[in-house]
Amino acid sequence: MVMEGKTEVPGKTDTLIRPKWVMLCYKCSAFGDYDAALLSRGPEGVMRRRNSMSGLNPWLLSSVASALTVLQIGLCIFRPHPNSVAVGRYAGYVLWAAGVVFAILPIFELKRRGRVKAGESYLKTTTLVTSGVYSLVRHPQGGLAWLLMNLAVILVGQTWLIVLLGAASMILVYLDAHKTDQYCIDQFGDEYLHYMETVPRVNVLSGALRLLRRR
Question: Global pTM?
Answer without folding.
Answer: 0.78
